[in-house]
Amino acid sequence: MAGPPLGVFLMLRRMSLTADVMAHGVLPGIAAAFLVAGLSVPALWLGGLLAGLAVAVGAGALSRATGGREDAALTGLYLVALALGVALISVRGGAMDLTHLLFGSVLGVDDPALLLMAGTATLTLLALAFAWRPLVLECFDPDFARAVGARGALWHLAFLALVALNVLAAFQALGTLMAVGLMMLPAVAARHWARGVGGMVYAAAGVAATCSALGLLLSYHLDLPSGPAIVLVAGLAWAVSVLFGPVDGLLPRLVRRPHLAG
Amino acid sequence: MATAVPEIRLRDLTVCHARRPAVHHLTGRFAPGSLTAVVGPNGAGKTTLLRAIAGLHRPEEGRVELPREARIGLLPQQAALDRRFPIACLDVVMFGLWPAVGPFRRVPRALRERASEALAAVGLAGFEARPVGSLSAGQFQRALFARLLLEDAPIILLDEPFNAVDARTAADLLRVVRRWHGEGRTVIAVLHDLDLVRREFPETLLLAREPIAWGPTGEALSAANRLRARMMAEAWAEEAGACTRGDAVAA
């Protein structure tokens, strides 16, 4: 999955909440598309993508325009989006299984969906490799980026679109509520394994791949829903990282070693 | 400077935060190659003025006249940056190459070496691979100066460059400022240390939302002007009506 590298950037931008908001934001989009166009995959994707982007961009604009705090605007929006999504789906009375939407069913993923996911992952990784420099600069010093004419806002929007795309790709397998887990948890865990942005991205991808495989096995053998199983394993990986990770981990801090000479 | 340094003209410039003017009806010019200190009490609109010149803050009224293609090097206030960001010193400095290489092109070896030279010029030789999180406030400021060196802009804006750095660092960085001035670049610095301003900066703009004085440092920083600046900055009308001065000028 290409989600975790995005998660690293979200974490660095202090936008961890944004992914969550997007995941909830895509729900009413998917539901509305379903009401209008029925079960057509392109329509569902378009609906979800537009709704996710609208929520994320809207929250940023809202907090800037009203001088409020962004986290408050985000929280407000995602609660409304979630409620709206569930209400819209209920209108058609269980034609779409709500639990599957929210929590996913990996084993129900068919070939076209799989291709879409692989396509999204490929596109995301290519885009990240391509736009690496502007993204890092935008994260580190947005004012400088604007002063040298780096078009920060444009990169930011493209980045948000990538996040929305990845949330969408993941929702069939993991569900909207759980998709973000696989994006953010490995990223947060990766912080404890690497000091540079590049290292964090590799570590996050590795953690995510391992967790997906282990989570799926667990889900199959213990008959758990796949989304929560994978996210639980990722949570375990995070806990292990916090405890034993070489960068700012708890255990290396507890072990007293003599301080360096200089 | 090989390329011509453009003049910066401010015409009746008003920049606001939520309709409150932070810079109010400011008119004047920064001559090419001038070295100007911007001085004033906290909340006087100094940072806002720099951001407006750099194009980061849109004026409510009036304008900053500057050729569109003019490149500006900006040193942001240090508090504005996340110093725990996981990035190496050399990478921060290399962002100064942005105008030369843009977002995608790879950095030629010659430019990479210039980045190392810039680090050495600010006293950070050998710091290339150090994460910025491990730098002290002074060292971080040196790294940002190295980024400016590499940027090679004809106009350089410094927002409180010597805050939170020790005397030795300030002296080293001041040497860099003098070098820029010697090369004919326009340098504008927001400063608080009046002794330093009197010693090193030929021109001063004393700002307290309203411009108080703008000219040779000795005159601008007279006791009468400084007192007026303090009074102006502390005046804050809760129920201020709309400003009509712009209309009067237009009429």
Overall morphology of chain A: globular
CATH C-level class of the domain at 1-71 and 191-251 in chain B:
Alpha Beta
- State the fourth-level CATH superfamily of the domain at 1-71 and 191-251 in chain B: P-loop containing nucleotide triphosphate hydrolases
CATH class of chain A: Mainly Alpha
- Outline of chain B, from the CA principal axes? globular
Percent range for β-strand residues of chain A: under 5%
The succession of helices and strands of chain B, N to C, reads: EEEHEEHHHHEHEHEEHHH
Share of helix of chain A, binned: over 70%
The CA-CA distance between the termini of chain A, in Å, is 43 Å
Chain pair forming the biggest interface:
A-B, 24 and 28 residues
Describe this structure in words.
The complex is a heterodimer of chains A (262) and B (251). In chain A, α2 packs across α9 and α10 packs parallel to α12 (226-244). By secondary structure, chain A is mainly alpha-helical. Chain A has helices at 3-12, 16-37, 41-66, 70-91, 98-103, 111-130, 132-140, 142-147, 152-174, 176-190, 197-222, 226-244, 250-254. Chain A has one domain (3-253): Orthogonal Bundle (ABC transporter involved in vitamin B12 uptake, BtuC). Chain A is globular. Chain B has 251 residues and is an alpha/beta fold. Chain B is globular. In chain B, the strands form 2 sheets. Chain B has a 6-stranded mixed β-sheet with strand order 5-6-7-3-8-9, sandwiched between helices. The mean pLDDT of chain B is 84. Classes of the chains: A mainly alpha (262), B alpha/beta (251). The A-B interface holds A 12, 67, 130-131, 133-134, 136-137, 139-141, 143-144, 146-150, 191, 194-197, 200 and B 18, 51, 54-56, 71-74, 76, 80-82, 85-88, 91-92, 95, 98-99, 103-104, 131, 133, 147, 151. Chain A: Keywords: Membrane, Transmembrane, Transmembrane helix, Transport. Chain A: It is found in: Cell membrane; Membrane. Chain A: InterPro entries: ABC_BtuC-like, ABC_TroCD.
